[in-house]
């Protein structure tokens, strides 16, 4: 029996539907949620998130932090910034990655490192880099 999954960003609902599994990376490590999972609340890392649909396909999402909550009603993912694979501009992401790499040669800035991680995740979700 599938579970209800909601993926919400400040701009809109990115995904709402039933799924057989959600796989994500939290600050405590990788975790997979199946229907009937125990209650859980965790902080999301910058990492691809997979929603396994009932037909066996995956909806892959670039998640740039946020919260995941599991309850008897399903899984809710709240992220300040998240992108479906179909929404990623690969060329712009490659330019952002190259820019962050150049800036990191001159500095040890945490925000620059986060920009580089976000670019890697976008490229992974878009299928350009391996996950």
Estimate the helix proportion, in percent.
Answer: 25-40%
Quaternary arrangement of the chains shown?
single chain
**In what range is the share of β-strand residues?**
over 45%
Pattern of helices and strands: EEEEEEEEHH
- Largest pleated sheet: 8 strands, mixed
Supply the CATH class of the largest domain: Mainly Beta
Give the tally of structural domains: 2
Q: How many extended strands?
A: 8
CATH fold annotation of the largest domain:
ATP Synthase, domain 1
Architecture overview:
The chain has 131 residues and is an alpha+beta fold. It has two domains: 3-85, F0F1 ATP synthase delta/epsilon subunit, N-terminal (ATP Synthase, domain 1); 88-125, no CATH class. 25% of the residues lie in helices and 45% in strands. The protein is built from two helices and eight strands. The protein has helices at residues 90-106, 110-125, and strands spanning 3-8, 13-19, 21-26, 29-33, 40-52, 58-71, 74-78, 82-84. Strands 1, 2, 3, 4, 5, 6, 7 and 8 form an eight-stranded mixed β-sheet that branches. Helix 1 runs antiparallel to helix 2 (110-125). The radius of gyration is 15 Å and the shape is elongated. The two termini are 28 Å apart.
């Amino acid at each position: 029996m599938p579970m209800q999954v909601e993926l919400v960003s400040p701009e809109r609902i990115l995904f709402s539907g039933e799924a057989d599994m959600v796989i994500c990376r939290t600050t405590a490590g990788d975790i997979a949620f199946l229907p009937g999972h125990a209650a859980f609340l965790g902080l999301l890392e910058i990492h691809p998130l997979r929603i396994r649909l009932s037909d066996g396909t995956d909806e892959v999402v670039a998640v740039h932090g946020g919260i995941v909550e599991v309850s008897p009603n399903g899984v809710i993912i709240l992220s300040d910034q998240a992108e479906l694979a179909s929404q990623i501009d690969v060329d712009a992401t490659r330019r952002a990655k190259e820019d962050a790499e150049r800036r990191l040669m001159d500095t040890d800035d945490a925000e620059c490192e986060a920009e580089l991680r976000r670019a890697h995740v976008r490229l992974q979700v878009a299928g350009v880099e391996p996950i």
